[in-house]
């Protein structure tokens, strides 16, 4: 199956990167990350230590992982009221999990289960989803669907280490009468698909139902067996509250994962979809996922982009998975790096603040 728009986008992306060496597979494959010295990969351990200390100064970071040339060259972990200082500790993804969701759609595309310009209603009836009949999967991936009033609650905050409260029930869809606060007038009611960009996890959640119909298995099972396991993730799973009674995930967030596993996601995209000796995600899909969407040049397929320079002093080619409270995976193609950091606290760490802390430790001649 060949998607004409993906072919065109892929051709444009390749034309714009004619001087860039073709991406080759790097990273851990199905095994653990390989470790190396920062200095052997053009970085400075003291500079990374300084960056880590600045990033963790507010006291709410759990971890920082730096990958270069597919090798883990630096990592630091910190304990706080919500987390332990171990590489295995699983943090709540919040919206950085959307980029894993985009990857799940990409895997289904690669397997020929769906096309990006398919109507969502082909898999998930409009009367159930609340989406307008003309909404396509592409609209859903680029936050340009016009919205829905059938929504799931947000990700559950991590509990303090001394909180024994067990997980609650899975998040179920609930019909609202109006759009969430801050949404444009008519959101989920009268806005036509493909006319308005509005960042909203509710629509992304409905992609999980699409995957269920397209694959013939629950979206939770599809994600875990067709994406998470083939990537060799060591501890990634979903919050109990993030899986509903039908076995569908809250695609807009609710993943529990380590900084190391979040870095795998960035490396997969840096590899143009190759992983463990195979093309896990079609390269054409990867190229479009990290290219500007029609209504927002700073957004691709559930990935944020820096082509418009939103993050000062960062390469325009940078893209990132981003979630509330500072869950970030920065992908820096020009310097062959992936940087992931996670944690939780009351302060809202922004991507600009996080990158400003890290920037002095990055290769100067290329950033």
Brief write-up:
The chain has helices at residues 4-16, 45-56, 97-110, 126-129, 137-141, 201-215, 219-228, 259-270, 283-289, 351-358; strands at 61-68, 71-77, 91-92, 150-151, 174-175, 237-238, 255-257, 274-275, 278-279, 304-305, 319-323, 327-332, 337-343. With 367 residues, it is an alpha+beta fold.
Write the layout of secondary structure elements.
Elements lengths: L3 H13 L28 H12 L4 E8 L2 E7 L13 E2 L4 H14 L15 H4 L7 H5 L8 E2 L22 E2 L25 H15 L3 H10 L8 E2 L16 E3 L1 H12 L3 E2 L2 E2 L3 H7 L14 E2 L13 E5 L3 E6 L4 E7 L7 H8 L9
Antiparallel strand pairs: 1-2, 1-13, 3-7, 4-5, 6-7, 8-9, 10-11, 11-12, 12-13
**Unreliable runs:** 1-21
Secondary-structure element pattern, one letter each: HHEEEHHHEEHHEEHEEHEEEEH
Helix content: 25-40%
Number of strands: 13
Structural class: alpha+beta
Q: Please indicate the count of domains.
A: 1
Strand order of the largest sheet: 2-1-13-12-11-10
Shape: globular
Looking at CATH, which topology would you report? Answer: Beta-lactamase
The CATH superfamily label reads DD-peptidase/beta-lactamase superfamily
Main β-sheet description: 6 strands, antiparallel
- What is Rg? 19 Å
Question: Approximately what portion of the residues adopt beta-strand conformation?
Answer: 5-15%
Provide structural commentary.
This protein has 367 residues and is of the alpha+beta class. The protein has a single domain, classed as Beta-lactamase (3-Layer(aba) Sandwich), CATH 3.40.710.10. The protein contains ten helices and 13 strands. A six-stranded antiparallel β-sheet has the order 2-1-13-12-11-10, sandwiched between helices. A hairpin with a 2-residue loop joins strand 8 and strand 9 (278-279). Helix 2 (45-56) runs antiparallel to helix 10 and helix 3 (97-110) packs parallel to helix 6. The longest helix is centred in the middle third of the chain and has 15 residues, at 201-215. The two termini are 38 Å apart. The model is unreliable at 1-21 (pLDDT under 50).
């Amino acid at each position: 199956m060949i998607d004409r728009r993906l072919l065109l986008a892929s051709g444009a992306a390749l034309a714009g990167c004619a001087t860039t060496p073709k991406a080759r597979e790097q990273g851990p494959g199905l095994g653990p990350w390989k470790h190396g010295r920062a200095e052997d990969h053009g970085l400075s351990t003291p500079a990374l230590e300084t960056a880590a200390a600045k990033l963790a100064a507010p006291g709410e970071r759990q971890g920082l992982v730096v990958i270069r040339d597919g090798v883990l060259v630096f990592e630091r972990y910190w304990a706080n009221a919500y987390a332990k200082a171990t590489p295995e500790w699983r943090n709540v993804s919040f919206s950085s999990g959307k980029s894993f969701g985009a990857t799940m759609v990409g895997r289904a595309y690669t397997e020929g289960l769906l096309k990006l310009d398919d109507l969502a209603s082909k898999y998930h009836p409009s009367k159930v989803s609340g989406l307008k009949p003309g909404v396509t999967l592409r609209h859903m991936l680029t936050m340009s669907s016009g919205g829905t009033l059938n929504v799931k609650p947000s990700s559950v905050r991590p509990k303090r280490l001394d909180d024994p409260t067990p997980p609650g029930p899975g998040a179920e869809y609930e019909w609202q009468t109006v759009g969430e606060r801050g949404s444009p007038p008519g959101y989920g009611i009268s806005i036509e698909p493909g006319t308005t960009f509005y960042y909203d996890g509710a629509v992304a959640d409905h992609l999980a139902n699409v995957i269920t119909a397209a694959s013939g298995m629950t979206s939770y099972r599809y994600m875990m067996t067709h994406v998470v396991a083939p990537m060799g993730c060591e501890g990634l799973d979903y919050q109990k509250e993030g899986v509903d009674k039908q076995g569908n995930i809250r695609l807009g967030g609710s993943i529990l994962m380590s900084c190391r596993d979040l870095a795998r996601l960035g490396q997969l995209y840096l590899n143009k979809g190759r992983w463990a000796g195979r093309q896990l995600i079609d390269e054409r899909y990867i190229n479009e996922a990290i290219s500007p969407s029609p209504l927002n040049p700073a957004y691709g397929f559930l990935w944020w982009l820096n082509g418009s320079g939103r993050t000062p002093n960062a390469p325009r080619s940078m893209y990132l998975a981003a979630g509330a409270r500072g869950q970030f995976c920065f992908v820096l193609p020009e310097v062959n790096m992936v940087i992931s950091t996670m944690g939780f606290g009351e302060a809202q760490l922004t991507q600009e603040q996080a990158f400003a802390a890290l920037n002095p430790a990055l290769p100067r001649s290329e950033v």
